[in-house]
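Minutes, project check-in
Item: structure for the 265-residue chain
Input as provided by the requester:
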Amino acid sequence: MKLGSSRPSVFGNCLSRRPFSSQQITSAEQQGWGVSEQPEQIPETIRQFEEFIRKDDFPCVGAKSALGRGTLQVHACRSITSGWDDVRIHRQLLDWAFAYRKDPGLFRSIAFVFDGPDDLDEKAFEAAMWERIQSLADKDAWLEQKYDPGVSSDPEDPHFSLSFGGEAFFVVGMHPHASRPARRFHKPVLVFNLHDQFEQLREQKKYESIRSTILKRDEALAGSVNPMLARHGEASEALQYSGRMVDEDDWQCPFRDKRADNDKE
């Protein structure tokens, strides 16, 4: 089953938050960035996540910019250890990818805040995160979505990135027991950032300055430099997704994309 390059927004039952003004909402909907806003049902965790991003010491200026522009989309889901919301999450990622191709722009992120569990240590969170990612990738493959040709599907490749709806994504995992304070939110969260945005920043010669700002702010918050951070092409970004410090030589990524197997046949 193959999907076209444009499709209606399908959001299922995941509750979403769209921090837009009425004018921004109209403009966004006209451009295909439609989201059902349900103010009376917005879970407190979504508001709390937005406040977490707004905190003065939160280091990611890109996320702050997305929130300020109304281009940070946040959804509340059930447990990160369950596949309950996987179909809905995948549909939202497809809509996000299709809308981005229609109107590329900077500082757009889509985040999924899970209700729990709250007691996962770093290894358990990492395992749950990859289970969700694997499930989402399997759905993308089943729908015959092409893997973004600008990145590799091999998690050991320095040019690896995830791909949904033909667009590459970088994932930032957060949870209550993260060792880095910038990743330490009181609920599990998966934030998906479009990889093409990083390339746009490089073309505009803004990438290094923004990266430097984020690194300095993160060091000020944590008291140390994050040893896992690397530029795309230097080391596989899969090492960075969960936020756990791992040894590149010993760590094995559990993710395998089915489309990579098809390419070898």
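Outcome recorded: The beta strands are 15-17, 72-79, 109-116, 162-164, 167-174, 189-194.
No further action items on this chain.
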